[in-house]
Amino acid sequence: MAKFRYLIIVLFLFLGICAKAQVSFVFLPEVHGCTLDGLFQVRLNAPASQKMLVNLNITVTAQKAGRVVTIKTRPFELMPGLNPVPVGLMAGATINFGNNKIAAICRQSGYFTEEEYDYCFELTAADNSHAGDIIGEQCFNYYLQPFSPLLLVTPAEEDDICDKRPTFFWQPLLPAVPGLQYRLILTALKPGQAKAEALRYNLPLINQQFINMPMLFFPPAARELEEGRQYVWQVTAYRNEMILANSEMWTFKISCTDSVKKKVPESFRDIDDLVKGNFYVARGRILFAVHNIYDKTALEYTITCITAPDQVIKKLPSIKLERGNNHVTIDLEDNRSFTDGYYYQLTIKLPDGETKQLRFLYKKETE
Amino acid sequence: MHPDEIALYQDYTICMFKNIFSTLSLMLLPAIMLAQQPVPRTAEQGPPGVIHQQWLKNNPILQAAVIDTLNHRIKSSGSLQYMPGAAIPQLNAVAEQQFFNHVSNTYGARQLQHVKKGYELLKDTTRTNRYLDEKLRGFYALRNETNALNLMKAGAYGNQFKTLWGNAFYDNTPGAVAKTGFSINIEDNVVIGNIPVNISYTNISGVGTLDRNMTDQSLKKFSFDKAAYVERMNGYLNKSYDLRKYFLEDINVSAAVKSFATQHIENACSEITPLLDPAQVAQFRNLISAEQLVYLDSNQIKHLLLDNKTLQLNEGELTGAFPDTALTTSAHASTVIAARHYLSKVADLKSMVEKGLAAKETLSAQHALDNNVKQRMNDPEAQQRNIKELLPLNFIQRLLLQTKSLNVGNIAASGSKGGVSDLFMSGAQGSFLNKNKFLMMGLGNRNDGGSFKDQHFSSSLEPASYKMQFLQMGKGDITEAHSHVALVNANTSNQTRNGFNTQSLSRNIFVGAFSEQIDLGAYGSIAAEISKSNNEFKNAGTGNDYALASKTAAFTLMNDFWQTVSIGLDYTGAIDAMQLSQRAYVSYSGLGYSNPASPGASRGTVRYGLGLKKSWNKRRVTVGFKMDRQDMSMSAITDSKWKNSQYAVDTRIRVKKNFSLSARIAQSAMKNISAHISQTGYLNRQISVTSQLSGKMFDLQQHNNITLGFQQMDIYPLKSLLLNLNVNHSIVVNTHVLSVSMFYNKDIKDQALYGNLLTAETGWSYQLGKLFSCTSGLTYLDNKEVVQQVGVKQTVAANLFNRLNMNLYMDCRKNLLNTPQNYLFGNFSTQLALYYLLNK
């Protein structure tokens, strides 16, 4: 409803500018006045009771620089009522550009740059009897500011994130024209798939329109994103059914296992073998296998530092021994008493009373 | 050995060369004919190839061994019977016939006939020699009774369906573009003439939320499967040929050379034994080894003799300043005579070994080969070379060996940034790499809009349909260091597709680009781009000249140079020792620049940025900094611009193995700067802290993730301050997982429509029977004064018959409160995905 209200207000506003001709023009300079092709979004309101053969001439003049462009169409039939510009008319139009900087940019890119413009539309009769008669003429004056680029913010391009329901942020398309809204699309990106293909081949996970703010919370009813998978997203700014700008396509990956580090599978060698060998390197932890013929109990052990004998070693983790074979892991990584490159001695008192001693070099675990 | 004998050996050697080449030149005739074919050859100049080619050509030992083996078709024993002086055997009539038959059967009878008739065509000796090497070695390496051509014919055609996908969803979110959607995807692999092609067909359809129109779209893609192609051809190759024999790895040449040299040094020593006492004989015998004979020059050998303390020789004695008669009396004199004789023998032997046996080359070649053969058999690039050398390939099959990719259908096309980038089109694109020369070309139609995802749009501010042709070529592969030229030619096209109107003023756009990537080794790489566009409208004129013209944009490419040029410089690199990775870039593009083959290309901007990421203490602490600035000019005559900046600092600290903290501080802003006004249109400041903790609590494995964030968001004239809290907690109970998550967002200033959203949900995962793994949960949502919902959530996943994978998701809610402002939250959403593996 709000959109129609804007349309009606704009319509009334411009109806007043020129009332000398019968045919009036509906044109939104803030949107349609941005590009050369946009000029053809004009609608022609013909109150006449019968159809006419007409030519449409469009002239755009910049206040400071002079005439920018004049476009003339081939003759076409104007029907009573509100007419869009007929299909196929643009392809045959003739164009004449002015001799100024604004016109040069327009000639190259099809975009109008910042300036105050007069967009003038003129309909002339094209049938033999009245050829050249002006049957409609209307100018729209507007200070045009070209749109800013539509830029994405977060999740950042090629980022790894842990949030499986991320919130999407982008920068608004400025200046804010009435009725401007955003559409956000998110799809999975299969391994080896190009971004542009993913957006068209895969069913979208989110394809939400009518977004007024440059952000979107992950839709609560949608399925959460999956660990280890890559996704691609893009935002489109539009007004009614017209695309104004597309953002870049950005990808991100859900990666949560970051802090839960994968343990490299290592073998547990028997403590007797370890003790016989004279050198053991503990990379963040000591691993050994021990056989316990008695009932389950806590493992009695101490560690002393050989490199710095004064050092007191505290907060060693408690280890439980089950009956039978035990794979023991003594985790030292987060213990501040251990220094990378120092030598230590582990003394274990087994439940059968036997004591084992293992000398080892402590190394911080590398990632 | 007598000097005459040695001379005889040399004669033999020369004779042997003549013999073998006369024999082989007859055999290589088919080669000339085959070589006349437009043979596209890649990278055959690589080191292993060269070694093999020259080796057999220059090496009589190998020639003898190969020919002898072929004559007797016996398995090589790995050692050599050949000695210089023995005549090199020629291919006997039977073997020759077999070789002709092999060439004729595998490479075609016509070629062979031409060969026999066209003897006079033998001109290009380099080609003939290489061909000789390849084909003769190929014949030598032939496995019994297998013919590559027959194998290739037998396996030339095939079809294998791979997978069948089906997806469907229903979602009644008021603002969803589509209410229902269906997609079916079939993946098939077809082999035509031994060329494997992957075919993917996707149909995607659905009904829009607002217009209730059914949209239906079919997408097809045919892509040449290079990896499968090489694998298939390599299979034929290994079935037909023993590659180890092809590389002559089975012949131990160096051992033969060494044993020959050792034996002749020994002979020389025996000749001088009567002149010497036993101690001196021992000295002579141990003086030089076979390797020394090959690698030392005659002067160095002489010095070995002079440096020997037992022999006590001096330079004058060896060079002949003493008259022979005066020497014969003393014992030392006989030593001198012996030494002179020894030297002359060794010199002769050396010359024979070097010239006749190409010993130096042989030894170093074998050393290189021992390292290379494995690589030459397993490396994909080398495999392609072997395939080309040995298999009978037609023109297309040869061309495909140099093809990197070939896609036809609805495809994404990409080249360098200033040329084709992130383009989606219906058409064809291929890229080729030969001898480090790269060529990419394509043509197709770009059509924006009208697709399933864009079903609610009917027009666009920019032209949305182009017919285009593009090309990129130059030195080096596109992913590595290269210098390329890229050209794009595009014409707008007018059509209406699926209700999307692509009417536009007719124009022709031409883009010429140059891209250079420089490899800095361990320090990364620099990519430089310069791209120039030119646009010509149809039926257009300028100023008071009312003559209309439709110029070709390519001919006026240099028009409006600075307004339509785009230049970029991008550096990325890493210093591993410092655990630092970095990127810096700067780019400029004129206000009039337009490149339809690169939809994301910017106009009228100056961009620059910096990215740094550094880790400390074995990655316990990681800090990343990112800055991107972009000024986009708005005006052709003033300095008005959109000034954009984005900064972000990310920090991650691993406090403990199972506990990490991360923080993010970021700001992005867009300012409007002009003569009249300087205004911040958008400002977003964000600070957030996340903790991740996992470990055992109450004997249960738990995982916790909390994010707390503040966000200032000013969108002129609105100013909001958002607080958001996101908590996820999961507990593993035996084989089940209990998860609880909560998201809360509060707009502290009560300005944004989004404000004050609370969502909460729980989930319990469990196994249902042997087949189904499920998660059930409860959900709650409260968007203050807009919507309030409570509901259930269910997922079911199953793997049936080892082939069918099923995945069902359902979210069903009851609205406790609903208002017309709600466009975000529907109350029923479901998804079904089926994946069927057609062939394992």
Compact description:
The complex is a heterodimer of chains A (367) and B (840). Chain A is mostly beta strands. Chain A is 11% helix and 41% strand.
Keyphrases for this structure?
heterodimer, A: 367 residues, Immunoglobulin-like, 3 domains, 6-stranded antiparallel β-sheet, 5 helices, B: 840 residues, alpha+beta, 26-stranded antiparallel β-barrel, two-stranded antiparallel ribbon, disordered N terminus, DUF928 domain-containing protein (chain A)
For the biggest sheet of chain A, the summary is: 6 strands, antiparallel
Radius of gyration of chain A: 38 Å
CATH topology of the largest domain in chain A: Immunoglobulin-like
Binned strand content of chain A: 35-45%
Instruction: Name the chain pair with the biggest interface and residue counts per chain.
Output: A-B, 106 and 139 residues
Helical coverage of chain A, percent range: 10-25%
Provide the low-confidence segments of chain B as ranges: 3-49, 75-79, 115-128
Low-pLDDT residue intervals, each spanning 5 or more residues of chain A: 10-21
Number of helices of chain B: 20
Proportion of helical residues of chain B? 25-40%
- Overall average residue pLDDT of chain B: 81
Number of domains of chain A: 3
User: What's the shape of chain A?
Assistant: rod-shaped
Radius of gyration of chain B: 39 Å
Q: Would you report the number of β strands of chain B? A: 30
Biggest β-sheet strands, sense, barrel of chain B: 26 strands, antiparallel, barrel
CATH top level assignment of the largest domain in chain A: Mainly Beta
Structural class of chain B: alpha+beta
Helix and strand content put the structural class of chain A at mainly beta
Protein name (chain A): DUF928 domain-containing protein
Organism (chain A): Chitinophaga niastensis
